[in-house]
Design brief:
Layout: H1 6-10, E1 19-25, E2 30-36, E3 51-64, E4 67-72, E5 76-79, E6 85-100, H2 109-115
Antiparallel strand pairs: 1-2, 2-6, 3-4, 3-5, 3-6
Length: 116
């Protein structure tokens, strides 16, 4: 078992920079905490693995390919591998939990509950 305090990680961020801190890396899954200050736009990037962004706080817009989506506290968005994406129009500082990793097999608590 591995444990990480998101609160402790958050305290390591500088004031006005876009930053990413690794919270956990198991080899199959990587979890990061991302900070995107208001008024910034991130670099347009793509990754080899799928990503899930869970917005802990803040408000802004993410561009996935040519599509845009507004995001706010509590939203979650899936970014498929190799899709270029960037945060644009960041209205309030965004703090996001980012999960990278392909699912090797489909397994989840929700899926096992559906089978019962």
């Amino acid at each position: 078992m591995r444990h990480c305090s998101i609160t402790d990680l958050q305290e390591q961020f500088a004031d006005d920079d876009i930053e990413h801190l690794e919270a956990l890396d198991t080899g199959a899954v990587t979890v990061e905490l991302g900070k995107y200050p208001a008024g910034n736009t991130t670099e347009r990037v793509s990754h080899a693995a799928d990503e899930i962004y869970y917005i802990l706080s803040g408000e802004g817009t993410i561009r996935l390919g040519e599509e845009t989506r507004s995001l706010t506290d509590g939203d979650m968005i899936h970014v498929e591998a190799a899709i270029e994406h960037e945060f644009v129009e960041i209205e309030q500082d965004i703090l996001a939990l980012i999960i990278f990793g392909p699912a090797i097999t489909s397994s989840s608590y929700a899926a096992s509950n559906d089978e019962s």
